[in-house]
Amino acid sequence: MTYKEHHPNWSRKSKNEIDQIIELALDENINYRDSLMMGIPATHLDKQEFTHDAQLLDGSTFLKTLINNPNHIGIHTNMKQSEPYFSGTQKLEAQVIRIVSEDILLASPNSIDGYISSGGTEGNIQALWVYRNYFNDVYSLDQNYSSIAIVCSEDTHYSCDKASNLLNLKIVKIRVHEDTRAIDQNHLEEQLKRLRKKGISNLIVVCNMMTTMFGSVDNLDTYFDAINLFNYFKTKVHVDGAYGGFLHPFTKPDQPLTFKDSRISSFALDAHKMLQAPYGTGIFVITKGLLKYTITNSAQYVTGKDCTLIGSRSGANAISIFKILHNYGPIGWAEKVTRLVSRAETLKNELNRLGVRLIYFEGSNIITIHSSEMTTSLALKYGLVPDNHLKPNWYKIVVMDHVKAYKIQKFLKDFKLFKSQKYLKKDFTKSKSYRLGISPE
Ligand SMILES: Cc1ncc(COP(=O)(O)O)c(C=O)c1O
Question: What range does the domain containing 393 cover?
């Protein structure tokens, strides 16, 4: 696989180079020890609990940033709107946003705003909050948002249900085909008809770039083929790439979910999943001009006010992403995720050879096996996650960094053994012998 060659903002750097950039950025931030600044309710981390020993910290500019404790409240893709005390590390955050939006998601230069959110949940809620207010402000709707609905597939992450609840927005889940996870066009059209009847004309479509359970990627054209039949709806599209954002664009370089598609105006990605950054490192990116719809005017003490959901947040999170991205560079990163996918493909091919009912999307590292092919004991032994803990239909294997080839081979060996032993094929806990208290061993 070759990855796109054009990377205006992203290159591999040596560890020394990366550390020097971060040291300079920290020097540009407020120096609590030597400066006279005393108006902001912020300081470095507690000295008794967290070492400030320069020699110990020398090995890690990430830990150094953590101890210096910069607050990245607000957004920094327009530095005029940023708190001045942390401008050094805020600029590195802005570089991360440019890499994600321009090098990975193909936006034109300087066309995107964004910030490091707490995770995919926040990115999704932030997007839906922006679009709710956008529809409300631009079309002067009633304040109970009754003409707006979130439209997404039934495989969409539950953070969109949280958003629906918090933002007082209806949510419409479109059925998917059981074994392909593709959106059911007939159900979509039925639901749109229903919405039109109810006078709901503003749709916020959440399009998945790899779902949590199946790694499936939605076809945005399926949504628009149906929406365009009506000549009635206004739409905004958010892409949930919390899981797939750092994988799918690399393993499927010609994939269409990018900012080049003018129907899409925002993405959520997580660095704390595939990128292996610490938790609290989501990324939210959105076309410039839209974040104004979530500016809180009463946030008068914050420079630039605040348009994010989270408020105060650690600048060290942005630094961790900056470090990882530059340590690999675009080619190194593509190589890394391709290796994971190739491990997943080996497993999928072997399971296919055994005729196992499974779901696998090309270029993905998730394999989802139907519960009829699985035993509870095998699922437990390998920590496979079910779609529903009470009534599992599917179990997934996610080939993350620690899921090495030898573990996959071990799983396959056990799986073949279980398959060849008939009584273990079914979920033993549901069998008559179990109810009668007879052990299968
Ligand atoms: C597709 C998708 N979206 C959103 C989320 C929520 O992300 P987080 O747990 O970082 O808030 C997840 C988490 O698994 C996810 O898989």
Answer: 330-435
